[in-house]
Specification:
The protein is globular, with a radius of gyration of 16 Å. The protein is about 60% helix and about 5% strand. The longest helix has 26 residues. Strand 1 and strand 2 form a beta hairpin. It contains five helices and two strands, in the order H-H-H-H-E-E-H. By secondary structure, the chain is mostly helical.
């Protein structure tokens, strides 16, 4: 997928964030694969999303799905019926197919919305923080960036 195939959006800011989300999910996956190849260990934590590299990969893709499901729900858009991310024990083998599927689903729902819908009102996130849609898009972009940064720091020692 490339940006030339992405239709025009009423609010170009949303289009930009959708494309940045794609870019950084792909970049995270490359770094994750390098970490896997190097067999790096994650720091000890009680967080179940950090039990292994596979649980981290599942976490990032589960969240990416969740952000779009949340935005569609709050905007009262049709349910895209985005299938869940493969479970941690399967995701390594299924991630390429799921990535293509998920990115295609991300391109659909926000294109025809006016800019005003992205800024007001705000809604409670699943973790009880208020976000407007634009802020949730930015959060979705930053999520794989943060985890990529963490993995790079571990790889670099």
């Amino acid at each position: 997928m490339n940006s030339k195939n992405l239709k025009k959006y009423k609010y170009n800011g949303a289009r930009t964030l959708v494309l940045l989300h794609e870019k950084h999910l792909r970049s995270f996956l490359l770094v994750w694969r390098e970490a896997k190849r190097l067999n790096i260990g994650l720091p000890d934590t009680e967080d179940p999303d950090y039990k292994s590299l596979n649980t981290l990969l599942h976490h990032v893709f589960r969240a990416a799905r969740g952000y779009m499901v949340w935005m569609c729900s709050k905007l009262e858009l049709p349910d895209l019926k985005i299938k869940p991310a493969p479970e941690a024990d399967k995701i390594e083998n299924e991630v390429d197919e799921y990535l293509i599927y998920l990115l295609a689903k991300w391109r659909i729902p926000l294109a025809d919305l006016a800019e005003e819908k992205f800024h007001s009102p705000t809604f409670k996130s699943n973790w009880d923080v208020d976000y407007c849609i634009d802020a949730m898009l930015e959060h979705a972009v930053m999520h794989p960036i943060r985890h990529e940064f963490q993995l790079k720091n571990i790889i670099e020692g």
